[in-house]
């Protein structure tokens, strides 16, 4: 049997881990189960990644890379600001509808990482990268269309991502297409209004500005 190097085995194990945990949940993602998913010895997993946490880090990084690539690829280069936000929203929502298990897995890993010091760094990196990419796309769309942002691009990006993640969780929990479409349209409208400075801030009792 031909020898397979660790560099070659690494993406295979990541793919197997994603398939297994997307199907059965993070709790099922033991090194033994992941090895069995690919049909290799358990020692192969440890040899390639060292620990289960290291494998989980690689899985989160892969899911993040896929999401970032999707965000970048969805942004049109010749559309208006509102149309750009709408295109990004629609493209990302299609991934939620077509690959809900991947989004659920990323949510599960994120919650695990909050309580796992060895995973917290990759979780922080995930959010920093997604916010940075989204901020860049917001800035590019504003510059291309001659739109002056009323707030920093990062603020717009964080608002967009936070709302989108909330809608994603609702879809995973209790999908309702009739309610989701107006909510997504409101998200686009809210992003545009925030960017334009027409979204009126409402004081929140007990919270400092």
TrEMBL record:
One of its GO terms (molecular function) is transcription cis-regulatory region binding. Keywords: DNA-binding, Transcription, Transcription regulation. Residues 30-49 bind DNA. InterPro entries: Homeodomain-like_sf, HTH-type_TetR-like_transc_reg, HTH_TetR, Tet_transcr_reg_TetR-rel_C_sf, TetR_C_31. Pfam families: TetR_C_31, TetR_N. PROSITE patterns: HTH_TETR_2. Residues 7-67 form the HTH tetR-type domain. This is TetR family transcriptional regulator. It comes from Streptomyces boluensis. The lineage of its organism: Bacteria, Bacillati, Actinomycetota, Actinomycetes, Kitasatosporales.
């Amino acid at each position: 049997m031909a020898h397979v190097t660790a560099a070659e085995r690494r993406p295979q194990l990541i793919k197997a881990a994603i398939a297994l945990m997307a199907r059965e949940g993070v709790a099922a993602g033991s090194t033994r189960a992941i090895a069995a998913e690919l049909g290799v010895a358990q020692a192969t997993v440890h040899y390639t990644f060292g620990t289960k946490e290291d494998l989980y880090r690689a899985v989160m990084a892969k899911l993040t890379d896929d999401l970032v690539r999707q965000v970048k690829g969805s942004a049109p280069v010749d559309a208006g600001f509102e149309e750009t936000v709408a295109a990004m929203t629609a493209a990302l929502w299609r991934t939620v509808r077509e690959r809900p298990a991947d989004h659920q897995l990323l949510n599960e890993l994120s919650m695990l990482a909050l309580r796992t010091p060895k995973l917290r760094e990759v979780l922080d990196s995930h959010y920093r990268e997604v916010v940075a990419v989204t901020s860049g796309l917001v800035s590019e769309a504003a510059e291309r269309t001659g739109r002056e942002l009323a707030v920093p691009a990062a603020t717009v990006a964080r608002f967009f991502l936070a709302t989108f993640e909330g809608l994603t969780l609702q879809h995973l929990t209790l999908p309702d297409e009739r309610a989701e479409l107006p909510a997504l349209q409101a998200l686009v409208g809210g992003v545009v209004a925030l960017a334009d400075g027409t979204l009126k801030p409402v004081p929140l009792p007990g919270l400092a500005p």
